[in-house]
Design goal:
single chain, alpha/beta, 5-stranded parallel beta sheet, two-stranded antiparallel sheet, 5 helices
Amino acid sequence: MSRKIILAVDHSDASHSALDWTLDNLYRTDDVLYLVHCFKPLQPAVGPHYSYIPTEAEQANWRKEQAHVLEEFVEKARAKRQDLTAKAILISGDPRDELVAYAEKEEAVAIVIGSRGRGALKRAFLGSVSSYLVSHSPVPVTVIRAKAQ
């Protein structure tokens, strides 16, 4: 019976470490690996002397740039595991909420995510997707730290 595993990916080295760990330790030949990249759409900005509203073309280009993240991960994963069954999923929205919802929708057995290793102060101000998932995910979450450079 195949298992559905979600690997949350972004531009970070930690995501590459999480991919390596998943393929080496969790993925089995009959599994399906969902490489999920969540991104926030371009937002309007208003200041005292300017305003910016992204056009549809700018939003489309931004989405295309985000899709390249997925392409990179799929290529790397397939180079490492020729038997890989993978699906690349691009989602617009807050990664915390979207990853939890996607895990429920797909009935995933696990989520794997990289950790950038931010300190407590940065986590408090910027938030931590991995911390949120550990607390709110309906399935087990494995957090992988980036490999030392």
